[in-house]
Amino acid sequence: MAEGTEQPDEALSLLRxxxxxxxxxxxxxxxQLKYEVTDPTEDYRFYLEAIAxxxxxxxxLMAVKQ
Length: 66
Known about the structure:
This is Signal transduction histidine kinase dimerisation/phosphoacceptor domain-containing protein. The protein is mostly helical.
């Protein structure tokens, strides 16, 4: 590869890694919240599920090869 194209690839790889680390933290917190609240409301479950779906979508977008 040409020298000019290596740096953007490295930057993208680092960005993907950092975003995935943060998404992992969010997913771990979501799982913990499922056990913390003993009597969750419908809204509570809806918000947890919406966050989980969004995290999964971001992970899928980050996995797309450019």
